Amino acid sequence: MAIYHLHAQVISRKAGRSAVACAAYRAGEKIQDERTGEQFDYTRKRGVQESMILAPEDAPEWARDRAQLWNQVEAAEVRKDAQLAREMDIALPTELTHEQRRDLIKSFVEEQFVDQGMVADVAIHKGGKPGDTRNHHAHVMLTMREIDQEGFGKKVREWNDWGRLEGWREEWEKAANRDLERAGHESRIDHRKLEAQREEALARGQDERALELTRAPQHHKGVAATNLERRGLESEKLERIRKARPAELAPYLEARKEGQKLLGELRGLQAQREREPEYQRLAEAQRQGEERRRQEEERKAQEERKYELARTDRRLYNALVEGYNQEVSKAVKSHYDEAKKAVMERLKPMVERINYLAAQYKEEGEVRQSLEAETKRLYHRINFLLDPSQAEALKQDLAGIDERRQQYATEHKELWGRRQKELSEENITKEAESITSRQHPELLERGQRLQQILNEWQQHDRAERQKQWEREQKEQDREDGGRGGLPGRGRGGPEIER
Hints:
By secondary structure, the protein is α+β, with helices and mostly antiparallel strands.
């Protein structure tokens, strides 16, 4: 079963340690400390399966040679209490093959340390006892100063931040679990303390798992004590651990005993409840919900793996974009009627106003017709009675009606145009897209991930074009130099002032 173990420490002169000695021991090699003249020969050490040095691209060539690297580290430090290197002892999943463990630790070290500017010396060890196939682990020694072609520079204090160590511990959990899953194994590791894991198990109703986690943490014995124990010798530290262990275990054993008792009672009640029909229906619903959750988690994990691969596979990226666009289009179409209904709901006040204007326009038209009839009737009276004042009043009333009807018609036309625009195919599609983004946040998140990968590809393309341009420039400069021309007169070169 895979276990979580990542122990970090600093190798310092104050503790009487040597970076050269530690590197020789971890790799099982013979290296001479140029500062002290002492030679460390561990070529007879057993259990070293493989060692490697991983360095940033701009590091000097000697940084990839173990003896030169750690002698340079020693030479860069002048204080008698100097911190020389950081070391990590990391347990490797026993379920994986040696090649899988090597690829796992190599990729983890490159991503978390080398890419940040550290040089890493990695040694992969197998179990210490003959026939022990469980204790696969790696020792990772890390430099503590920035490095470039000129050699070591200033110490990077940010690498000592406690938060960074917590981040490395969590990232190792993710990396190991990812490779365990890829290899088809169910076991997983957890970087959290036992108490946190136990509380989570209890919250999920995993009582047996919580009981299993009710145990005392293991003590870190250290290299010296472990070596003495392997040779059958005693040490003060081991003796102290053995004496203190019973008192440490007592509360955990008592809690485990009580937990087993409660678990037995719970199982009895559980068996009784499971025979009830209502409980069986609830259990089946819960099982289906768990299955849906598991399938969703599996889908997300597969999708995450595809995103990682798409960062280096443009064809896969294009396929993901095409699939994403099809899903978005399908989701938008499914919300089209809902979007149209939402737009119509928003337009209700406008539609009421449009109907009111149409009614007023019609009503004023009917009034106008009656006035026109009255005008014709009075026209004959005026001719006989010579009363032009009434005719003038009727003309003014007609003019007022015509003005109001024109205002109604203008506003009606404007509102009707706005209504038609709101109900256009383009606007309803936009509303459907808005509903999709609100109701399908996972699509929005996927779109953001794809956009991020696109930005990375565009940045990569720009860098490649820049490199190509620089290569062409150098080639052009060499051609110009071969013809005896002036330097800098190639494509893009500066002009010479005359």
